[in-house]
Amino acid sequence: MKSPSFSFRAITTPFEQIPKWMIVFLGVAIWVVVIASWSAITYSGMITETFLPTPDMVVSRTLKYIQNGVLWEHTSASVQVVFIGFVLSSVVSVPLGLFMGTYRIVQAFLDPLVNFMRYLPVTSFVPLFILWIGIGIEQRVTVIIFGIFFQQLVMLADTARSVPRDLVNAAYTLGTSRAHTVFHIVLPASLPNIFDILRVTMGWAWTYLVVAELVAARSGLGYISLKAMRGFQVDVIFMAIAMIGILGLITDQGFRLLRKYAAPWAL
Amino acid sequence: MAKSRYANLRSADIVIDDVHLRYGTGPSSVLALDGISFDVKPNEFCVIVGPSGCGKSSLLYLVAGLETKTAGTITVNGKPVSDPGPERGMVFQAYTLFPWLTVAKNVEYGPKRKGYPAAERKDIVDHFLAEVGLSKFADHYPSQLSGGMKQRVAIARALANDPMVLLMDEPFGALDSQTRHTMQGLLLRVWEHSKKTVLFVTHDIEEAILLADRVLVMSGRPGQIKKEITINFDRPRNMDLVLEPDFISTKREILELLKDTDDDEH
């Protein structure tokens, strides 16, 4: 493959690759634009600091919260809940989803329930969970599991179902038994997609976490945002949002790396 | 390529007796195969040609045990076929290498299922990758190979499992004509070494005559065996054969048979 060239024609050609330095440059540029615009409208006084803090207010607030350990305390609380909820959900949904996509009998049994559940907004369950479970960590974990489990199942079943039939037939003619098909063929064939599904649903897990923390929690990034709202500390809200964004970016990259390592054959 | 102990000699006969295949039930059902009967002898290279939709691939899937016949019997090495099994290797028209395994691991797949020790598996893989000329690509993934190379690995993978019969469903159908000729030459050479019983399906008449000991010509739907033609050219054969007068007259004969089939349909 020829290395991408930098010319007006090349960069305006649909689907054409662009040079690597340009990707990095543009990736930085978008943030320069965002922060510059933010600075312009805050430092100029267009919008009062009470509603939109200046960048340096957010930075100094963040530094202060790092020093006194508050940021760490609430970030780790949130990460813990997301992690537990996500792992508990995925540990069940991955094998179950693959079986659902492979065996029609499992699909016929679960489909009616799954398709009912996945259209219910998980937020509507929050009052119920608070009544049943209280406002501890278990409640937030439950919200996350209910938020992503059924979505994961549907996507995983789809990916298992799309494994080419001739791949399975070839495996049969090489001595693979029907009982081994799920783990010897369907699982490895679906692996790249499984990582993509996990990556996407991890993002949703963060969304549901914040929802749960806003409603009922005594720790977490959603909780300090809510507290900050009551005290008009918009800079704290900004800090919490930025933190969630950064954590999202890190987990996203983590899953990309994991996929590259676990499924090196897939592009 | 020197003969090694892995130049397998296991080879069996296929007996197909009055096989019918009907898709669906009731008035909308379609009769795909209508009373197919023929034998393939051990070590024989038997090719089925026929118009598209005549059920020739379905017949192969029946022998593989990947589809279920409506009536009749199929036996391989004296045993009735009911399920797929490793004694009936298959090469498909679609690319069916496992994308998550390297070339070597793909070839190793069958022996591994059988529980062969690692050292023996390595010998087998080395032997068959050399047979198809892909030793250098042992550590590549299928996505890094061309179509022709993928099918060479698929042939090596099927043979490495030491099947008693080798079923080939238009394995070169998706390849360009240049590559297809190379592959036919390679298959002839590999087959000379292994002498497996082969049942090969194609719609390419030249390919059929070039490879076969015997060509079975099928009619259009419902599929029936229209004629059986024994091919007597000396082996080992090569591509030059296609210009021989005898080759051309055989080709004409089969073309006429297939033309009649077209007329039947209209």
List descriptors:
heterodimer; A: 267 residues; mainly alpha; MetI-like fold; 2 domains; 76% helix; flat; B: 266 residues; alpha/beta; Rossmann fold; six-stranded mixed beta sheet; four-stranded antiparallel beta sheet; 7 helices; 35% helix
Write the layout of secondary structure elements.
The complex is a heterodimer of chains A (267) and B (266).
Chain A: H1 8-11, H2 20-43, H3 55-67, H4 70-102, H5 104-117, H6 126-133, H7 137-161, H8 165-173, H9 181-215, H10 221-230, H11 234-262
Helix pairs in contact in A: 3-11, 4-5, 4-7, 4-9, 4-10, 5-7, 6-7, 7-9, 9-10, 9-11, 10-11
Chain B: E1 14-23, E2 30-40, E3 45-49, H1 56-64, E4 71-76, E5 79-80, E6 88-91, H2 103-113, H3 118-131, H4 147-160, E7 165-169, H5 177-194, E8 197-202, H6 205-211, E9 214-218, E10 225-230, H7 245-265
Parallel strand pairs in B: 3-8, 3-9, 6-7, 7-8
Antiparallel strand pairs in B: 1-2, 1-4, 4-5, 9-10
Helix pairs in contact in B: 2-3, 2-4, 3-4, 4-5, 6-7
GO molecular function (chain B): ATP binding; ATP hydrolysis activity
Organism (chain B): Hwanghaeella grinnelliae
Keywords (chain B): ATP-binding, Nucleotide-binding, Transport
What can you tell me about this protein's structure?
The complex is a heterodimer of chains A (267) and B (266). With 267 residues, chain A is mainly α. Chain A folds into 2 domains: 40 residues, no CATH class; 206 residues, MetI-like fold (Orthogonal Bundle). Chain A has 11 helices and no strands. In chain A, helix 4 crosses helix 5 and helix 4 runs parallel beside helix 7. The longest helix of chain A is centred in the C-terminal third of the chain and has 35 residues. The two termini of chain A are 15 Å apart. Chain B is an alpha/beta fold. Chain B has a domain of 183 residues: Rossmann fold (3-Layer(aba) Sandwich), CATH 3.40.50. Helix content of chain B is 35%, strand content 23%. Chain B has 7 helices and 10 strands. In chain B, the strands form 2 sheets. A 6-stranded mixed beta sheet of chain B has the order 6-7-8-3-9-10, with helices on both faces. Chain B has a 4-stranded antiparallel beta sheet with strand order 2-1-4-5, with helices on one face. Chain B is globular and about 50 Å long. Chain B: Keywords: ATP-binding, Nucleotide-binding, Transport. Chain B: This is ABC transporter ATP-binding protein. Chain B: Belongs to the ABC transporter superfamily. Chain B: It holds the Pfam family ABC_tran. Chain B: It comes from Hwanghaeella grinnelliae.
